[in-house]
Specification:
The protein is α/β, with parallel strands linked by helices. The protein has 23 helices and 7 strands. Helix content is 63%, strand content 7%.
Length: 515
Amino acid sequence: MLRVKQTDIRGLLLLLFFCAFFLLSRGIYLDRDEINPDGVNWHYRSEQFIVGLKSGDFAKTYQHYHPGVTLMWIVGPVVELIKQIDPDQRIYDQFNIPMFHFYSKLALISVQLVLTLFAMYLLSKILGKKLAYLSMLLLSVEPFFLGNSRILHMDVLLTLFLIISLLLSYLNLKHFSIGGAILSGLFLALSFLTKSVAIGGVAFVIAMNFLGRSSLKTFVRSSALTLLSFVFFTFLLFPALWVAPISTLTSIFSEAERVGIRKGHDQIVFGEYTSDAGPLFYPLALLMKVSPITLLGALFFVVVRFIKFMKEKACPFRLLKNVSALWYLGIFYMGYFFIMFFPTKKLDRYMLVIYPFVCVLSVLGLSKLLSLIRNKVIRGVSTALLVVGLGYPLVSHFPYYFTYTSPVFGSAENAHKVIAQKPFGMGMFALRDMILENYYYPALCFYDIKPMRAIYPNSRIWDVRVNGLSDCDMFILGPNEEMPVDATTGKYKFEKEHSLYINGLEYWRVYVKKV
C-alpha cells in the first residue's frame, strides 16, 4: 500500500514539474518577445467575433477562411473581460495592445497546457505513462514548437486538437464506446474550426473506421456517431453557420483553395525568390527546425522497425485489420506530409502538425538506443548528454525560440541562406526600444507595418510600398528584405546605423536618412 502511495506521489510531482516547466518556458518574457502581423489581425477578428455574438449579427463570427474560430473563442472573451473591468481600455491603441496581447497569449498557452495533458493521458493508454510523459515533454521542449506556442497563432492549437482527435479515434476503433465516438467528433470539429485543412482528419478517421472495423454494423454505428458529433459541434461553436451555412462553408473552402493552393507564398530558398518552394521545402524545413537529437531518435526507431518489418514480410493490408497505434498515426502523418507538397503556399510552421508523431518515434528510438548500452555508467552519461543537448537551445535561444535553426546547418546565417527566416514580428519591442533610446519618435518605414504600428504612434509609421521614402526618417529591413535601389541612389540617401541581432542572425537593420 505504501509503495502505491509513493508511486502516486512521484507521478503527481512529475506532473507538477511538467506544468510548471510548460508555463515558465512559455510565460517568461511573453509580454516582450514578439507581436506578429497575423496576431494583430486576430486581435481585430476576435473583437469582431465578440461584437457579432453580442449584437446577434452572427455572420460576423466568420472572419477568415482558416477559419480560426477556436482562437477567437479564446482571445475574444479575454479581451472583452478586460474591457468590461476597465472601460477606459475599450479601444485598442499603442499603449494597451501589449497588455491585451500578453493576456491573450497567456490564455492560449493555458489552453495548450490542458490539451497537452489530455493528449498525454490518451497516449498513456497506448504507450504507458512513462513513454507518454517523455513524448509530451520532448514535444514541449522542441525549440521551434515552443516558439510557435508563444505566439498568437493557430498552428500549435491545430496540432494538439488533431493529435487528440486521432488518439481518441484510434482508441475508439479498438474498443468502441458512444462517449469515445462523440469526443472524437468534438475534437475533429475543434480541429476543423481552427484550420480548414483539418477536414482531412475527418476523412481519415472514417476511412480507417471502414478498413479496421470487423463488421459493417460497427462501422456504420461508429462513423455515424463521429460524423454527427463533428457536425453538431461545428455548428454549435460557429454561429456564422446558424445564419448562412452554405455561403460560409463555400467561402472557407474556396478561399483556402485560392490562397493556399493556387496563390502561393513568397519564400527565399537557396537565395532565390519563389512563390512555390517546391517538394524539397518541407524536408529541408524539418531538418532545419527539428532538433538533431529528436530527429536521430525518430530515424533510429524507423530504421529498426523497417528492418523488422522486412524480416517478417508482413502484409500492410492485413495490418489494417489489427492496426497498431503507430501505424494508425503514421499513415495519417505521412499522408499529411506528402499532401502538403501540393499547395503552393508553403511555410515551415505548417509542419508543426507532425511534431507529436516525430516526438513519439524519437522517445521510442532513444529508449531503444539507451537500452542497448549495457554499462550503467555509460548509459547514465549518455542520458545526461541527451538532456543537456535538448535543454541547451532553451537557454541559448531564449526567448526567441521561433527563430531556432538546427546546429546541423552550422549557424543561423548558413540556415538563412537555405530557407530565409521570416521577420514575423520577432524582437519588435526590443527594436522599438533601441530606436527610442537614440531618437525621439522618428518616422519609420517598413515593408510590413502591422507589428510596429501596434506599439508605435500610427502617425509615425509608413508603408514604403505605398508612401515611398519621402516621409521616412528611418527605413527598417527584416532578415529577408532588401533595400530599394532609390534608397541609395535616389533623392533620399539612407545609411545603416543600427542592427538588432537575434540568435546570431542580423534580424533588423535600421537605415537612417542623411540630409
